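Technical note accompanying the year-one report. For the benefit of new consortium partners, we illustrate the data format agreed upon in the data management plan: each record pairs a sequence with a structure-token string. No post-processing was applied to the example shown here.
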Amino acid sequence: VQLQASGGGLVQAGGSLSLSCSASGSIFRANNMGWYRQVRGKEREWVAFVSSGGTAMYRGSVKGRFTISRDNGKNTVYLQMNSLKPEDTAVYYCNRYPYEAGYWGQGTLVTVSS
């Protein structure tokens, strides 16, 4: 089972992108869902997660700029990214939080130019 993220692209610094990720109901149901990102050569890092009830948490570097949300009826989790910075450039993935190793998909590339 994999989760497929989409919505990445190339954007200038200060711009916005909206990511989405859909999966089967068995993955979403009653589980925290998270967004992660990975820069080539570095470890994957957690970006944000949202509980089944909608409570969200963010890593410090994105707090106030990114918003995670979920639509349980559509089994979809979203990441709205505003005020993007070059250091946000990475491949973004979604997964449960904490993640399940078998659920990693290909991710979606976000490139922020300066």
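Partners are asked to follow this layout when depositing records. The longest strand covers residues 90-96.
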